[in-house]
Amino acid sequence: ADQGVKDVVIIGGGPGGYVSAIKAAQLGLKVACVEGRGALGGTCLNVGCIPSKALLQSSHMYAEAKHAFKKHGVLVDGLAVDVAAMQQQKAAAVDGLTKGIEGLFKKNKVEYIRGWAKIKSATEVEVSTSSGSTTMVSTKNVIIATGSEVTPLPGVPVDERRIVSSTGALSLEQVPGSMVVIGGGYIGLELGSVWARLGAEVTVVEFLDHIVPTMDGEVRRAFQRSLQKQGLKFKLSTKVASAEADGAGVRLELQPSKGNGDSETMTADVVLVSTGRRPFTKGLNLEGVGVSTDPRGSIVVDEHFQTTTPGIYAIGDVIPGPMLAHKAEEDGVACVELLAGRSGHVNYNTVPSIVYTWPEVASVGKTEEQVKAEGINYKVGKFAFMANSRARSVDDTEGLVKFISDAASDKILGAHIMGPNAGELIAECVLAMEYGASTEDIARTCHGHPTLSEAVKEAAIATAFGKAIHS
Ligand code: FAD
């Protein structure tokens, strides 16, 4: 290892940490990235975004083969699921990508230090390796990018076999007969979808009276109906008081989330706890170096990502804001740009969020409920994929595109898409918002035909001019 003083030591090799390490090196800084888990890529690559998308794809292909192939004239005999092979393809994708980051580190001259970091001061980081030795790394700055972990749910002890977190749900060796998903956020719905498609009887238990609370209400209701059609069951306004694994499976005790209605019991082969994540700062010695956290455990930072201790910065899931990989990356890039004496900025109004179920749901900016609550004078335009020629030709017509724009200026305030490839389609809306565009700007932009993106254009036409062409 290089013994010289670093410009910056980054703690954590997730999307926040590894991207800022590469960017810092590209900006000419001398940088080391410390990661304890034995592989780069953090939660996202190892037990989050990437493995979940691999299993979503495998299970989607199976569901298509089962439900859609015949109509397209593709006949398959003896259709079956090989979970081991699915897990193998998932593991290969994860392994290839984590090794890829190691390659990028070498190429960009980022020093990769394997081990767990403890901050001794703003200029000294102690790293304990798995072999038990410790080394001290001297640096001018420290960036904390230690991410998040599953928040435990009282009364529901995770064993990662029958009562699982998202990590266990990504590694099941067989399709459970029944599964209860506690928490109707995007992680629960994605992983619930995976196992439901493969044959599990899935029930989502949600404390609130609706799923994914951050979603536009109209889109959310359509989304829930779609998931119900696919066989997912929902128990809303319900809380899980306890869950206990015994020989046969898991016994759960459910109660209405409000009032003192009767409790009921339920059994399931597997229970997935997906009620949220919390910042992970264990072992960093934050108190010792004067780095403050808020009541939720997030590290407090100023607009330049500096913590309450000069020279120590924090980015990604460990600071406030949406816990998303691309948000962590944006934080990281802006943080090192500032460290390198340049300008760095993140526009948190244009961070997209995507649910990778089928149909996908993607959004950016404000929901209709939000603009209403803020008293903004707004207009709405929509377009259904049912009227989009590409969606019709491939027979994938569920969902809609919805724009919300300022009534006077037509500036886009929010875009919400439920439909095929919504996660890719939202990028155009994000770019438009980043450029301060109006829906008329999108309406007057030529879109290729026949593409799903024409549904975005049509929804923009509906917003700008009151009427779409094809509806
Ligand atoms: P992390 O990725 O959590 O990385 C932090 C790293 O720091 C870890 O590898 C950890 O080992 C290391 N570390 C911690 N402490 C120390 C220490 N003291 N010393 C050394 N190393 C340390 N986001 C999306 O945008 N899209 C998705 O589709 C998506 N899907 C998800 C699916 C699941 C099932 C889960 C759980 C999450 C998903 N996320 C998704 C969220 C995403 O994974 C996180 O937002 C993202 O990983 C945060 O990046 P980060 O760099 O802040 O932290």
Automatic annotation (TrEMBL):
Pfam families for this protein: Pyr_redox_2, Pyr_redox_dim
InterPro entries to which the protein is assigned, alphabetical: Class-I_Pyr_Nuc-Dis_Oxidored, FAD/NAD-bd_sf, FAD/NAD-binding_dom, FAD/NAD-linked_Rdtase_dimer_sf, Lipoamide_DH, Pyr_nuc-diS_OxRdtase, Pyr_nucl-diS_OxRdtase_dimer, Pyr_OxRdtase_I_AS
Biological classification of the source: Eukaryota, Viridiplantae, Chlorophyta, core chlorophytes, Trebouxiophyceae
Pyridine nucleotide-disulphide oxidoreductase dimerisation domain residues: 351-460
Swiss-Prot/TrEMBL GO biological process terms: 2-oxoglutarate metabolic process; cellular respiration
The UniProt record lists the keyword Nucleotide-binding: yes
Family per record: Belongs to the class-I pyridine nucleotide-disulfide oxidoreductase family.
Note: The active site is a redox-active disulfide bond.
Source species: Chlorella variabilis (Green alga)
Signal peptide positions (record): none
EC nos: 1.8.1.4
Protein name: Dihydrolipoyl dehydrogenase
Cofactor requirement: FAD
Cofactor note: Binds 1 FAD per subunit.
Binding-site list for FAD: K53, T146, G147, S148, D317, M323, L324, A325, H326
